[in-house]
# Entry
Amino acid sequence: MADLDRAPHRRLPGPHRHRPPGRADRPAAPTADALRDFEAGAWYHRTSPASHFTRSLVCSLLTEGGRITLSGHTLTTTTGAERTRTELPTDAAALRAYDQYFGIVLDRLPPRPDGAGV
# Structure
């Protein structure tokens, strides 16, 4: 995993919007000017000891109708206003979820940022 605090901060090039290949049906990415509004909040979420993101593992992906998120051993599927949480009973189940929902193949779970067990 990359250490985001040590990575150089880069601005998106120019005022144009980037649309990833195969995502023509989704809105274009915001411009660099629009992203600046989120810098303070993003800094807090990646550095504060009180932030959920510095205390646990979180993997999230937009889907056609919402989002799917794996946080520790909790898999949350959101479609519109409906949210379903599933507790995954084992590390093996979490590893299968990383593969099935995010296309990430791991031989073991990454360590939690806070050093505690999952």
User: Anything to note?
Assistant: The chain is about 25% helix and 20% strand. Residues 1-21 have pLDDT under 50 and may be disordered. The longest strand covers residues 66-71.
